[in-house]
């Protein structure tokens, strides 16, 4: 009964207005009030500040500064095996496994399609059909910067407007097509394992989604799909955006979910990863099964 009420509230609440308000408040320098919120948040969610580059709570002048705090050097070593991909974020695996034709498993009784998730991009759908997916949920206590599982060259970024439901296990179990209906930023990379997609999924109270190459992607929330295409990886080409394995690629101002998509036969997930596994950025994510020479990467 309580779960049913919580789900109904998600439909009734003015999610966009609440998110805008939260983003505005989180960006303000409010002195003692900011300090009170940061300290209360840290205690309530049991945030581990010993991994932060700056563990002094009093030094954060806005809640956003605290929330996107960088890690101290060495807190998350990147797995050194060149044949192994690194986990992109601290969080929990909510689901991972095969894409069945173009269907992705959300939770018991719920699937969503690649076509819906990728905003109708038929070329991307065909590339990732029958591939693999992994959803990593970032709880409020987690580190909220997102990193590269492997080295890659950015080919495309797509902003997709959408709903702002919470993306916790409760909503995943009860809201149909949850991840395909959410606001999100789709990032497409060329890598040694072939094309890889990393999607930053928005949620209620997520004031902002940012990438390291574009800065703040949302807000503003313009209500239309926007697409950016980046230079093809030609030696010496100006404007090339290349990120190394473990490099930061984006961040959330408040928590959400990262979805990774891999092509068929490209990787095999680390055996210790299952639904519910706690993740630490930089640890083993997947094994590279078939490296693809850069010259043979398909045109997207």
List keywords for this structure.
4-stranded antiparallel sheet; alpha+beta; 300 residues; 2 domains; 8 helices; 21% helix
Shape: globular
Number of helices: 8
N-to-C terminal Cα separation, in Å?
47 Å
Tell me the quaternary state. Answer: single chain
The biggest beta sheet, please? 9 strands, antiparallel
Q: What average pLDDT do the residues reach? A: 87
pLDDT < 50 runs, ≥5 residues: 293-298
Count the domains.
2
Q: In sequence order, what are the helices and strands, one letter per element? A: HHHHEEEEHHEEEHHEEEEEEEEEEE
Question: What percent of residues adopt helix (DSSP H or I)?
Answer: 10-25%
Structural class: alpha+beta
- Gyration radius from CA atoms, angstroms: 19 Å
The total beta strand count reads 18
Beta-strand share of residues: 25-35%
Describe it.
- By secondary structure, the protein is an alpha+beta fold.
- The chain has two domains: 2-67, no CATH class; 84-296.
- It has eight helices and 18 strands.
- It has helices at 2-12, 15-26, 32-45, 63-67, 114-117, 122-128, 169-174, 178-181, and strands at 84-86, 91-98, 103-107, 110-113, 132-137, 145-147, 152-160, 184-191, 194-201, 208-211, 215-218, 226-229, 242-243, 248-253, 257-262, 267-269, 278-279, 284-288.
- The strands form four sheets. Strands 2, 5, 7, 8, 9, 12, 13, 15 and 17 form a nine-stranded antiparallel beta sheet that branches.
- A hairpin with a 3-residue loop joins strand 10 and strand 11.
């Amino acid at each position: 009964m309580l779960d049913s009420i919580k789900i109904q509230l998600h439909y009734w609440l003015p999610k966009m207005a609440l998110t805008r308000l939260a983003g505005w408040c989180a960006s303000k320098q409010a002195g003692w009030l900011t300090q009170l919120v940061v300290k209360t948040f840290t205690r309530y969610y049991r945030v581990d500040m010993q991994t932060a580059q700056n563990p002094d709570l009093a030094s954060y002048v806005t809640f956003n500064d605290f929330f996107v705090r960088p890690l101290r050097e060495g807190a998350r070593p990147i797995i050194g095996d060149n044949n192994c991909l690194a986990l992109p974020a601290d969080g929990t695996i909510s689901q991972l496994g095969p894409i069945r034709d173009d269907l992705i498993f959300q939770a018991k009784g719920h699937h969503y399609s690649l076509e819906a998730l990728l905003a109708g991009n038929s070329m991307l759908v065909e590339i990732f059909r029958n591939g693999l997916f992994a959803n990593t949920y970032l709880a409020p206590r987690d580190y909220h910067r997102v990193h590269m599982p492997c080295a890659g060259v950015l080919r495309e970024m797509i902003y997709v407007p959408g709903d702002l439901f919470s993306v916790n296990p409760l909503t995943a179990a009860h809201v149909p097509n949850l991840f395909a209906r959410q606001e999100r930023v789709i990032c497409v990379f060329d890598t040694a394992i072939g094309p890889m997609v990393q999607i930053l999924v928005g949620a209620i109270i997520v004031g902002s989604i940012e990438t390291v190459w574009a800065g703040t992607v949302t807000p503003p929330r313009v209500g239309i799909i926007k697409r950016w295409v980046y230079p093809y990886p030609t030696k010496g080409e100006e404007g090339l955006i290349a990120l190394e394995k473990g490099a930061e690629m984006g961040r959330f101002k408040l928590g959400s979910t990262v979805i990774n998509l891999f092509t068929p036969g490209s990787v095999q997930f680390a055996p210790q990863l299952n639904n519910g596994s706690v993740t630490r950025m930089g640890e083993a994510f997947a094994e590279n099964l078939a490296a693809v020479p850069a010259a043979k990467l398909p045109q997207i």
